[in-house]
Amino acid sequence: MLLQRQPVELSEVTVTGEATDREQMKAIQRQLRRLRLYSKGIDGIEGFFTDQGLTEAFGGDDWFPLSNAEILTRLEAAERPRAGSGHQLRYAELFKDGVLDVTYGFGYLEGELEGRQAMVDYSKSLPVAAATALTGLGFSEDAAGAREILGRVGRSIEPDAIGAFYVKRAAFTYAPTAGTPRDIDVVVRVISDAAGDRGRESLDAFVDAMANGDVAYYSGHGRFGSGPDFDQDYVVKFLDDAGNVVQVFDDEDVVEKILRQEGDPWAVFQRRVSKSPPTISVEVTDAGNLWLNAKNAHPAEFGAKLMYWALEHGARVASGSGGRLEQATAASSHRYRVLVFDGCRSQDYDRSLRSTGGFGTREADIIETTRTIGFTREIGKPERVEVQAFKAFLSDLMDQDSGERIAKDMGAQMKEFEAQYKGDPYMFSGHGDNPLR
Amino acid sequence: MPDSDPVSALADPDQWSWAAPALASIAQRGDRDALAALVAAYGQRTEASRQPLLDAIESLNGVPAVVQLARSEGAGDRLLAARLAHLLPASAHVPVLEQLVTDPDREVAAEARAALRTQPRDAHWREVVRHLAQSSDTDLATEAKAWQREG
User: Does pTM surpass 0.90?
Assistant: First the structure.
């Protein structure tokens, strides 16, 4: 079931502030600069960056009804924060309703490690490790509590919604420089489906989180840069000339090797799949695919070609104009979101996502990976590298650290726990237009 | 800097293109440890091409090694047999996998079931699966019936 949230509708808003006065606005911009929330020119023109600074200063939209004079007075009274380093996330947007709503989704894993059972065991260990990590951060599993907290801010959870819900009330205090300090309740929803038979529900919940939540964090396969996936991708069948199945494959590398015996494997695939009758068929299980990148970023690789062929024959691109994601964010009351794609080469998603309404750099900050991501080094231990990275992310988020610090701390976990660690994999995209600390 | 030892170099998918054939060129045919190293590398989470690994496994007699490894008392060897059968399907594996699908070691049994699904579906395969579909092991029977529905 979907996590349904309703935006709060204001029947009528009366703006009581006086008309923008350019000199007064310049003074406001100077104050915002003093408070390290504005680094653009002092031009007296109220635009995105001025509004962003005001929202961050007041910790939300409380400044909307104030006059410029009142805003200026409040800003002048605010204490200048100490200098930091890096770019802030737009914490006012995340915390303005008093709730931090985080969804942590595990993608479907298959075909690696020491075989099927090892992969199933690993998949099942991930939500267990997440529970341990969240408990370590002071969270408790509490679906009723999550329902109450999210309901308070106009969001509802179906009783049979997929996932486990963890809550930490008054997890931290958010104290905007010119606003009222407030305690923030944090809800973390962990979506995991090791069996892969609830892929559509997992995907729906994750898309909902991307549009309507504060943070949507994915950990799993990147499917050759195509996007997250919450169920098995496809099954390849070899057929005889009469259409009878003669072999079934669950591994694209094995398919490639066998086709290589007949020539260039991709040319052979295309010839056989388009033959009449075809001697290859592909059963696409697309229910869990979040196809973000319409263009194959790795066109030289057989696996990437097969992945894209399968997607093109059974899925729809969710990004771009009019796509599922744009439709979802258009109906959302959220102006800003943080996304993490902890999968192989998820930087491949960036261009497609950025061209999607609701996911421009002013609307979304995204942590992406610049390389393939390995499994946990010591698999016999309970810690899981992907969960450790998530734990660092969440902990830093609650500490209101900079984007750079968050990515660095996540990378440090990879260094400690990842098999075949080859340098920090994370990069923050989109925070260049955020306030500098 | 590239590792000169092919076995340790297999830990890095970027080095598979030389490490896998290098290992295949120096190991004995059917060398259990070499095959195990290649199969372990295959299980890494990567999107690098695994073709060098498959070619090396094949050239080290990975297909005929399945029968012998499957007879081992060591569960690790039997798991390796099932993995090899999964990666290099062949009709000759079917009788071996028919035994391994009920192996007392759950990892061996699970991998053998995954492997059996991907073997050539000749008359013998269909007969074996028809038999398994009537197994008193309900999980195994359910899986075998699913394979039958695939065609």
Answer: yes
